[in-house]
Amino acid sequence: MDNISKTISHLLVFVSIIFFVYIFYRSEIHHNGLLTHYYYKYYILSFCIFAISFISYFIPKNFKINISIICFSIFIGLYVVEGYLNLESRKISTYKNLTGQDYDTRNRFEVYQSLKKINPNIVASPHPVYFTDSFDTAPLSGIANRTTLHCNENGYYSIYESDRYGFNNPDLEWDKNITEFLLVGDSMTRGACVNEPDTISGNIKKLINNKNGVLNLGQSGNGPLRAYATLKEYLHLKNVQKIIWVYFEGNDLREFNIELKHKTLVKYLNNKNYSQNLASRNNSIQKLLLSELNNVETIMNSNQIQSKIFKRNSITSFLILTKVRIYFFESLFYDYKTKKEIFLKKEFKKILKMANDLANENNAELYFVYLPSFSRFQLFNNNDEFMNYKEVLNIVNKLEISIIDINKELFSKHKDPLSLFPFRSHGHYNEKGYKLVAKKILDRIK
Q1: Residues 339-366, buried b or exposed e (16+ Cβ, 10 A)?
Q2: What mean pLDDT, rounded, does the chain reach?
Q3: How many CA atoms lie within 13 A of 293 on its CB side?
Q4: In the predicted model, is pLDDT for residue 400 greater than 70?
Q5: For the chain, what is the largest distance between any 2 Cα atoms, rounded to a whole number of angstroms?
Q6: CA 203 – CA 188 distance, rounded (Å)
């Protein structure tokens, strides 16, 4: 009995140390300290485990063993849930039943290599967020006039033809005399993991019969600062009537915090006249993006095609209960009012005011579209405090910018909001979700 009791205490100490080392590696090395505020709660958890392991040496043996059995049973249950959430077969069978097609289980690099044999010019476009302070230029678009491989959340890989600047549009949209709608935002705006006609902008084009132009300038990884910079660089090229600023609660404030540390991007905030003149320098920008294409291929190859690494990543994901944490822990322990987000209010208000002023200077009307995340509905987090929902909308309202609250007007009224996400799981919206968002935007504007 004594040996079992000591073994339990020693094991707890060992687990607490390993857990702390892993959190430190992820926070300070893997993410270069940029997400320390995110990992803060895990640091606290690791210290709690260490404290419990120390106290366990002084707990009565029988009581310690009984508690250990209970905790062990709970962990077994969590891993059973994690295994269920990771069952790819659920998605495969669901997709087959709904579409009659086979779910594409290949990784992105395998798809890219396969398509490249058919079309050598296909690209997996370099993310603008790849371009850190080590570059003199901060691109805001992808590679132009190329078939572009994007992502798979709905059972198939989305692919689109990029326009002359590298955005997800048919190029003819730039030739129309009037652009009725211009959209800026992140991957939700870009139309992640659905084909172009099923994006928000694609659905708007169908609903207005495509008589006037609809330009989608969204890019994955954009926060509010990149959204404003995109307006500053490309708005003047067209006669735009309405600007749709798409705000996604899931990560926009976190991305804004990172953008403010970028030596080039922050110039847009500090100087309203600043511009990189990206449109007029498009040829040189495209050369820069193409030069990074080999790096993207290398990253894809090293992270996805090597089966041993891919398998190891899957096992690691399972061991650290990734899906369980995303579904439950992250939502339950969300830090509503971190000091960092409170500090950002002033900058957030400033960037929105600059965007509204820019819209007025170009005789366009700005609309702020608030998009909810999956986490809002998975554990009944649909309240005014979640993800600074009320504070963000109050700032927009005080600036007298028109608000289209998709959470209030669509998702909260929908009988099954999770059905608007791919296979009812974390990710971007599915085709139905994007379609309903586009319809609600047009209804509100009318």
Answers
A1: eebeebeebbbebbebbbebbeebebeb
A2: 86
A3: 20
A4: yes
A5: 83
A6: 13
Helices (H) and strands (E) in the chain, counts: 20, 7
Exposure string (b/e) for 269-299, b if CB count within 10 Å is 16 or more? beeeeeebebbeeeeebbebbeebeeebbee
Pull the structure tokens for residue 68.
Answer: 């250990």
Contacts of 187 (CB under 8 A, 6+ apart): 218, 219, 220, 221, 222, 248, 428
Cβ distance 143 to 160 under 8 Å? no
Long-range CB pairs of 324-331, under 8 A, 24+ apart, other chains included: 324/78, 324/81, 324/82, 324/85, 326/426, 327/85, 327/378, 327/379, 327/426, 328/379, 330/375, 331/375, 331/378, 331/379, 331/381
Say which residue the tokens 């400033």 belong to. 350
- Alpha helix ranges (H) inside 167-281: 187-190, 200-207, 224-234, 252-259, 266-270
Q: Are 427 and 421 in contact (CB under 8 A)?
A: yes
Paired tokens of 26: 């992820």
DSSP 126: P
When computed from its CA atoms, the radius of gyration of the chain, rounded to whole angstroms, is 24
At position 443, the amino acid (one-letter code) is D
Residues 6+ apart with CB under 8 A from 158: 150, 151, 152, 191, 192, 193, 194, 195
Instruction: Express each pLDDT in 101-153 by its tens digit.
Output: 999 988 888 899 999 999 999 998 767 777 877 788 999 999 999 999 999 99
What would the pLDDT profile of 14-34 be if each residue is shown by its tens digit?
888 888 888 888 777 766 665
**How wide is the angle at C-alpha 342 spanned by C-alphas 331 and 274, nearest 5°?**
115
Query: What phi, psi does 34 have (nearest 5°)?
Result: -75, -20
Give the helix/strand (H/E) hosting 149: strand 147-149
Return all residues near 248 (Cβ < 8 A) that are at least 6 apart. 185, 186, 187, 188, 371, 373
**What are 69-79's pLDDT values in tens digits?**
887 787 787 77
Instruction: Produce one character per residue of 395-413: b if its CB has 16 or more CB atoms within 10 Å, e if not.
Output: bbeebebbbbbbbeebbee
Amino acid at 130: Y
In this structure, what is the dihedral angle of CA atoms 422, 423, 427, 430, given to the nearest 10 degrees?
10
